[in-house]
Amino acid sequence: MANIIRIYEENPNPKAIKQVVEVLKKGGLIIYPTDTVYGLGCDITNTKALEKVARIKGVKLDKANFSFICHDLSNLSDYVKQIDTKTFKILKRALPGPYTFILPGSKTLPAAFKKKKEVGIRVPNNNIALEIVKLLGNPIVSTSIRDEDEIIEYTTDPELILEKWDNLVDLVIDGGYGDNQASTVVDLSKEEPLIVREGKGSLEIF
Asked: Is residue 141 within 8 Å of residue 48, measured between CB atoms?
């Protein structure tokens, strides 16, 4: 049975954020708000938790395309190969924001992702998500709970999310109604930016 906790984005309660981080550190799974749709996440350093997320999504962990939710760009080199100035300027312009950037993976990726040539990096413009990863001290690995075939209410209403995910996760964060539009995915691993999926967020910054 999952717990539900209310956190306000304008001023996230530090005690509540600490409670979420404790769940993550114990290998728990959370559903949390972002600047797009609600996400399913776990601690990037916990392989057992990562395997649980992969099972829920029906994919093998080494084949999964999960996003790394970061607090900012300061520890990017832990997960991404050195990037050029042009790429860094795009990231600085767009983040925090509703974008997932595909970048070449570094050799220092966590064990579960060692074979990954590319990784998806997200810095969402949502204080709840940012405070969680800041206190945790490393990214959370995330995948959206959006149904790819249709937009339905349970992906935006925390109470309905809890009903659906009650037996699959440890904690649902009620951060208010979520969006039903996923992030825009941009591949920056090539010479020119390539829009892989158009979602929320302006394309003009590219």
From this structure: no
